Structure to design on (463 residues):
């Protein structure tokens, strides 16, 4: 297609340049329930609400950009995971996806445990009143100070990630006169079908101790020999945004095999296995995530079968979903600024945020959808790229999407499925002020993480 064949102006859906984008939606006003939080609705007059409140009102009160989080949806997802796994298993919410004191309180009330991976996450969990014995601590390079704090507060378990860490945690526990409950994280050698940067169980990466060459068995020997450690289980996490259960099956099988080897060598049956997180969510209507009950059933069956054939009593299973709980419960609300039609290409729609509030598109080539939410429009669709206001051409929020051709500066648009890894990976690039997280429930809105201010920026800059 030659560029000159197209007049300047918005690209309408019936004349598209070559490219990789989802098909234009038949109704741009429709909000697909697969990607929007559960209480999101659009009235006949076009008003979009979440938790019973119009988003235009939320924008007036809290400004844009803002992450709007549906508390009822968050709690419902926690309960779905809890109920699916039942009393014989534990669900640890992975705090790295998004953590705040309000979220910790919701988790606690809904009966979930919490996985943290830094001193900062641990401090947030403790400040919110999560009992230390319901927290697990992960990470490939926990500092001695972080380990010491965790042991001191009586953390439920530390997931050991290296030989050096086995010695380090044992030493700190000895010094504090404690016996620390630990698991060993193993790399099971599974290639998860996801982006390289979020796949974690193949061998050539920084996490865990390899099963394949006997390293994991050696780590178990060492951990069992140290008085400061109480080895309670084996941990595995194969990656993130995974839809196919096959990787989990292989992982569960290999972990159970290791339990059988430990029993044979040491006469000890470890009581726990943790199969990690990583379950995918729908970022676009094309994604088909598994429901928690299907995941629980499938993991439970594999573990029972493998244990039966190895003559082991079934261990207590735990899982660590982060994205699958919080991801779908929030969307980012932006105000449209400059709109730039590029002849023969697409229209660039700039918003008042960007890669500082959602780095996932730039980092992982993540796909998102977008909708006009401040009004209804029956204009034809145009192909757009939603970009931020940062000084970088890779500052893309939604690479290819369709919005109504009458879009104008001042309109509000929203990008759904931004609850996980958007606020938690947000930055101050270009001295952007990180957006607030506003939770909505039953017609009431509450700021749970406030917007950063220029004073916040300057407080760190000591001159
Ligand atoms: N457990 C462990 C040990 C993990 O390392 C992770 C994620 C999880 C649980 C939770 O995984 P989830 O269920 O949320 O997929 N920033 C990336 C994701 C990095 C995930 C790191 N570990 C992203 O935005 O996609």
């Amino acid at each position: 297609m030659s560029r000159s064949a197209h007049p300047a102006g918005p690209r309408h859906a019936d004349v598209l340049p070559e490219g990789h984008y989802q098909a234009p939606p038949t109704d741009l006003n429709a909000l697909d329930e697969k990607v929007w939080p559960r209480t999101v609705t659009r009235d006949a007059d076009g008003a979009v609400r979440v938790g019973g409140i119009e988003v235009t009102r939320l924008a007036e009160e809290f400004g844009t950009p803002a992450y709007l989080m549906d508390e009822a949806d968050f709690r419902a997802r926690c309960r779905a995971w809890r109920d699916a796994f039942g009393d014989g298993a534990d669900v640890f919410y992975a705090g790295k996806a998004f953590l705040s004191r309000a979220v910790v309180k919701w988790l606690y009330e809904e009966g979930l445990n919490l996985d943290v991976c830094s001193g900062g996450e641990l401090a947030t969990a403790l400040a919110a009143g999560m009992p230390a014995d319901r927290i697990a601590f992960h990470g490939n390079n926990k500092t001695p100070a972080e380990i010491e704090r965790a042991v001191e507060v009586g953390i439920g378990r530390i997931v050991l990630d290296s030989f050096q860490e086995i010695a380090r945690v044992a030493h700190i526990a000895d010094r504090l006169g404690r016996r620390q409950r630990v698991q060993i994280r193993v790399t099971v050698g599974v290639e998860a079908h996801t982006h390289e940067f979020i796949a974690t169980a193949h061998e050539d990466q920084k996490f865990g101790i390899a099963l394949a060459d006997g390293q994991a068995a050696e780590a178990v020997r060492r951990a069992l020999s140290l008085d400061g450690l109480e080895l309670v289980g084996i941990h595995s996490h194969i990656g993130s945004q995974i839809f196919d259960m096959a990787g989990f099956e292989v992982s569960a099988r290999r972990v159970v095999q290791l339990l059988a080897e430990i029993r044979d060598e040491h006469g000890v049956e470890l009581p726990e296995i943790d199969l990690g997180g990583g379950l995918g969510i729908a970022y676009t209507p094309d994604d088909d995530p598994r429901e928690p009950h299907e995941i629980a059933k499938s993991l439970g069956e594999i573990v029972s079968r493998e244990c039966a054939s190895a003559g082991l009593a079934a261990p207590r299973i735990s899982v660590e979903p982060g994205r699958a709980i919080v991801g779908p419960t929030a969307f980012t609300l932006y105000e449209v600024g400059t709109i730039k039609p590029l002849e023969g290409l697409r229209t660039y729609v700039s918003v008042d945020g960007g890669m500082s509030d959602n780095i996932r598109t730039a980092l992982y080539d993540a796909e998102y959808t977008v909708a006009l939410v401040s009004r209804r429009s029956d204009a034809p669709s145009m192909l757009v790229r939603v970009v931020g206001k940062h000084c970088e051409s890779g500052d893309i929020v939604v690479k290819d999407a369709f919005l109504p051709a009458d879009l104008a500066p001042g309109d509000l648009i929203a990008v759904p499925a931004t609850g996980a890894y958007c606020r938690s990976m947000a930055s101050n690039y270009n001295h952007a002020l990180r957006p607030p997280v506003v939770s909505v429930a039953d017609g009431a809105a509450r700021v749970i993480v406030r917007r950063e201010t220029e004073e916040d920026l300057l407080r760190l800059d000591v001159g």
Summary: Residues 94, 96-97, 115, 138, 198, 237, 240-241, 276-279, 320-324, 360, 364, 420-421, 425 surround LLP (CB under 6 Å). The chain has a mean pLDDT of 93. The domain at 14-70+328-460 is CATH 2.40.37.10 (Lyase, Ornithine Decarboxylase; Chain A, domain 1). The chain has twelve helices and 21 strands.
